[in-house]
Design brief:
It is a single chain. This protein has about 425 residues and is α/β, with parallel strands linked by helices. The chain is built from 14 helices and 16 strands. It has 2 domains: about 140 residues, Urease, subunit C, domain 1, CATH 2.30.40.10; about 300 residues, TIM Barrel. Strands 1, 2, 3, 4, 5, 14, 15 and 16 form an 8-stranded mixed sheet that branches. Strands 6-7-8-9-10-11-12-13 form an 8-stranded mixed sheet. Helix 4 crosses helix 5. It is globular. The N terminus is likely disordered.
Amino acid sequence: MNKFITVALSAFVAFTQVGFAWAENVAIVGGRVVTMGEAGVIENGTVIIERGRIAAVGADVTVPEGYRIIDATGKYVTPGLMNSATTIGLEEVSLEGSTVDHTINSGSPFSNNSQDAPFDAAFDVSYAYNPNATLVAVTRMEGVTRAMIVPNFGASIFGGNAALVDLSGNIDSLPVAGVAMTVGLGSSGGSHAGGSRAGAMSYLIRALAEAESLSRRGVRSLPTRERDSVVSQIDAEALIPVVKGERRLLAVVSRASDIVQTLRLLDRFSNIKLVIYGAEEGWMVANKLAAKNVPVIIDPQSNLPSTFDSLASTYHNASRLVRSGVKVAFVANGAGGPRLLPQSAGIAVAHGMAWGDAMAAITINPAEIFGINSRYGSLERGKEADVVVWDGDPLEVMSAPTAVFIKGQSIELTSRQTELRDRYLDLNPDMPFAYVK
């Protein structure tokens, strides 16, 4: 055999073995296993993690010899949670432009841009994700193992492409790019399209039509008159997967009437996979969302109107949407950030949502919405081992994870916050003055 090939094969085998070195073989036994799959809730259940995946789940599972055993008696065992829209890993210090990567063409003095980018829809935040961002460790300690990272809006109705990430912190945990295209509608979108929400919708329809034409004919409807096109060639190309149904359209919209107008896009562009984000007044048109089979992503803590677009905000939004047959996923926004996702789900339960539906909104539902449910979102054989052991009901505010696994990797439950706490909790008087003052 060629010497080069021999060396290459040896290197590949070594790499493969190293790749599984961190993925322990573990048995989690005796817990209340909330599978979020067909098996439902298994009392006194066992979850077997093998080579980064779930090898077995059940009440009568034999633990293989040599596996590390975690006793989950009296505890809950769930899939890792997922925040469906966040800027985690894209921002470190909000007023330091060099650490803020979720927005382009914003005109902000903190954007640190010397020149605006010649595109908007083609913007892809996955290139900027930092797995070592401080908030990543803080968030995964609370049982959140996956996230959809989304761009914010600059000077266009298009924010750009969102991406899926795991929160393992591994430097090579590159995001799954191009999962959804974000577009802002309503009054916010209107501010980037002539000052009217009608302008934003007109702009979106024309942009999608140009992408559709480019996809169908290889040229735009006005190939020699670029100045008459509403989006650049590069942005039109970025929208082709949207009109072909290969990439979701994540529409940020709040007002009930605007949601209805957005749903009408499906009559014009039948292949689009539409997802509504925000939907503070979604409960008012829940039957229309259900009829179109369009899922929504909401913040269960949105209870007061922040703009005139969300005058009908209510804590009961989630429960009313689910009762109408709408698939719902949750985000946790605000100062607490994505780590408060289970608390947000608990608030939804406190206002009429079934416990199982709230758990689905932070596990299997976002997995189904974004097309990764074949490998994540429930505790079922063959899926990637995102598993969390909780010391109590995960939706109770005082409960906390006692063990977290991401793709079979055991995650240390530490962060910069816990390290600072431990450093200054018991001050040694013999330490230098700077540490004890």
